[in-house]
Design a protein that fits this description.
The two termini are 19 Å apart. The protein is mainly alpha-helical. It is built from 3 helices and no strands. It has one domain. Helix content is 74%, strand content 0%.
Length: 108
């Protein structure tokens, strides 16, 4: 009876620790997209010549992006997509490693 209770507790703890990959992807995407949006608009409002030479290098990776108000929306979209992929992959990898660890731990 005690063995069943311990096994049930271990399974419940494992379920609590797992991450939801979709939620992780959405949160990471929103944070990265918003960060690019705010950084771009900050540099546009700050002004100067040239405007954001380092941030403008994102245009090499994000087609259509430049340091302007319109470009901040392009960066928001690209940032969300890239952040979603990164967050989803990180949560998926974490859950796979967790399931492998619990499978090998249960086999002992």
């Amino acid at each position: 009876m005690e063995h069943d209770r311990t096994s049930l507790q271990e399974r419940a703890l494992t379920r609590v620790v797992q991450l939801n990959a979709k939620v992780q992807g959405i949160v990471t995407g929103v944070v990265l997209g918003t960060g690019i949006f705010i950084a771009t608009n900050w540099l546009v409002l700050k002004g100067g010549e040239p405007v954001g030479p380092h941030l403008s290098l994102l245009g090499q990776f994000f087609w259509g992006y430049n340091v302007s108000f319109a470009g901040s929306f392009v960066g928001l979209g690209y940032g969300f997509v890239c952040g979603f992929v990164i967050g989803y992959f990180m949560a998926w990898t974490y859950n796979r490693v967790l399931s492998l660890r619990t499978t090998t731990a249960a086999g002992r």
